[in-house]
Model the fold of this input.
Amino acid sequence: MKKITPEKFWELYKTLPQELKGVLCDPKTGDNIFEICQKNNIPQKTEEISDCVAQVLIGVLPPDEFQEVLEKELKINPEVAKKVNQEIYRFIFFPVKASLEELYKKGLIPIAQPSKIYTPLKERSKEKTIEDIYREPIE
Amino acid sequence: MAKTNKIFNLLPKIKFFIFLIFLLFLFPERANAAIPILGAIGSFILTTAATIATVSIIVILILQLLLGVMGLINTALANLISWSISPGALGNWSYTNNPIVSYGLEITGGFVSMGLILALVAIAFATILRLEGWDTKRLLLRLIVVALLVYFAPVICGFIVDAANIFMWHFAERIGGVGVLTTTFLNVALNLIRAFLGIPVLQQITTVASSFVQLIFQLYLALVLLMFFLLFTFRYVAIWIAVILSPIAFICWILPATRGYWEWWWKNFLQWVLAGPITAFFLYLGARAASEVSTAQWADPTRGFLAGFTLNPIAQIIPYLFPIGILNLGIILGIQGAGMGANFIFKWANKGMGYLRAAPSWAMRSRMGQRTMERLASITPGVERYLGRLEERAARVPIGGKALEATVRGIKRGVQMPIPYILRYAARARRVVIPKEFEEMSVAEQEAYVNALSSAEERIQFAAVMKKLGTLQKASKEFREKILAEAKTLAQSPYFKKEVGGIFDAFPNQMTKEMKIALALTPEMPPQVAQKVRREIEEKIERIANAIEEETKINPELNVEIEKIMRETGKTRQEVLSDIAAGVLHVREMSPRDIANVAKGSLDSVAFRLGMREATASKIYQLFENFDRETAEKVLEGPGGLNQLFRTLEGQPEKQKELLIKLHQENESLLRWFIINPAGRSIRFLPRDILEREYGTYENFLASLRKVPPERPKIIRPPERVPPRIVRRYEKREPEEPREKEGGENEKRDWSV
Done:
């Protein structure tokens, strides 16, 4: 992972579209990163993961290499890295997917497999539902 | 019968040849000079025609008669026109005061009262049923106006007609040329008639031709003069009818459903009134042309020229085609012009009515109107309170108290009723309308516009718009100082607090303690509440000022900045500290959205830097979002900024740690933003460096804080107080029995209520 200086960061920041600027500065982005790290028991890596996210949003690190960086450079367990990648993709990268695609000028590979947390609508209907004994019949 | 039919069937075929004969007789010189062959044919036809014409003595006699009659008719018509447009044409019958109009008004006047009652009933139903499209208040006003004016309708119409007739009579006095026109034609006719006698038969053909042409001219002139005469005569009748219908038309103006008839009446009335002077003008013009033709120097040579190739009588009357043409066009333009004039007047009358309707709102918006409404709005609460007290006192009156109370209550309700309207008018009078073009003006243009306004209230409202547009922040220093000075004077006014507060959002470093208190207080606040608010603000400002004073002991740069402000403003240290504290309080109370509107110069002020220490992450985000990095970082690096504060404690790591923990306790979101947020991590932030130096990671820092639980303040409960026994007024006080301690042998608990 290339480390960029603050000067370089701000130089690239000026060229970004407004959407990406907003995500970079939004307090919710930092809060999301903090909570994801807390949930996955890697709170010590919060600052480093934040730096990686910054590099993705600034256009230096492609999103499909994000998980690899988490595993190799931050030395995070591959399973944990996958989860963190999925959640960061869901909460931070996905809302600005179009801008990121434009920035990298290629389609984003849907590397984030649906986790158990989120089930697509089609698959949800296939899952067996437990009978709700309290549900009243529709007349 | 068959032979007669054959002759009549041949007539269309030979009429062309007959026409040729007359042409040749009219222009014999030309015919002979131009086409010799035509001349030869003409001679042949002439000989043949002469034979026929010689026989038609009856035709000649009829022509003589017709010429004479037409000449006389035209003369008579000219005299009739002069009579019809002269004043006093109908004796003492005026346009609005004559027996016919009186009879008509007797009938239509009878409908007036009925119409007014019906209109009132219609308005009443519209009010009860709240029908849409019926502005009943305005209709009632119209009803009253019409009720006052309807009996003066003939007078109003007469006034308008007389005004138009002044112009008409002006032209009527100068019309003499029409007589010249008709006299000339009559003379020519008489000459022609005389020419039929004592002339050889063959030459009578020329005279016959001249006579036909003269007859055509006479007919044309007669038609034109008849049109004028009929118009002026019908004008009388039309105006009489309009005057007779005027009361009904006025009634129709009240209700929206019938207003169309009013407009129809009004347009037609105006049209007929204006037709007189406009047509009289063209008549005057035509007559003047006729008299000029008879005396003009060009006319004789022209006649001489015309006589060279046509008959003399024709040459006499051809120049008069010009005045006849003017008369003909004049009658058409006069009628059209009357219609256009009526529309024009109608439009301007509507505009005038619009101005009249707007006049009350202009009066309201004027300074006097505004002050009157504000004064009324300010005294009505006092009057209400007084009447409320009076109502209470009236209720206590032993005899007739109820009636008096009800009366006072009724008066109070009567006073309360107009309050919403007065307040609405007062609010409307205070508001300025910001033109759309104002937003498109440049900063200099907006400055010039606002400077040209007459009152401080208007300037403040426009300045508030400039602040939203971001142009106030870029305005010249003199302009900003002027606006701020005016904002300070208007801070006491309850009506412009929002605008004044908005202006100080852009310049928080200009806030003072008095301004902060003035913005927080309103005249409607009860005195105790106002005092409480004032005290709270003063305490907050004092606390902040004391904290700043404490900090200056360890932060010499901050002290230097304060002394600089003291030198620039000439205020004492305490005053400067209070003003800075007021600015800090204002910045703390600003919303994140307001940060975008702060002037760049104010970002680089002590008050703003100190205020942003307690800023939320959203405010910091707005700061970096809306301003460039250098400007935003100055907020941290300048005297009073967070970085500058930590820098003063360089070499004192323990104090830096203490300050860091204090910062985390007071503003955790701000610290977290700089430590975790992707953009925040790229900004130079000294507390983050200290955190990484002392703890390594943010998690370690939080863990260290978790090890030391925060000290909980001891809750000191007040001693239990036994409430005294309530003694009723009618009960006698008995000495209290000594109470036994709890747990005593003879303890009896009395559970009764």
About this structure: Confidence is low (pLDDT under 50) at residues 107-125 of chain A. Chain A touches chain B at residues 6, 9-10, 13, 21-22, 24-27, 29-31, 33-34, 43-44, 46-47, 50-51, 53-54, 57 (CB under 8 Å). Residues 78-93 of chain A form the longest helix (16 residues).
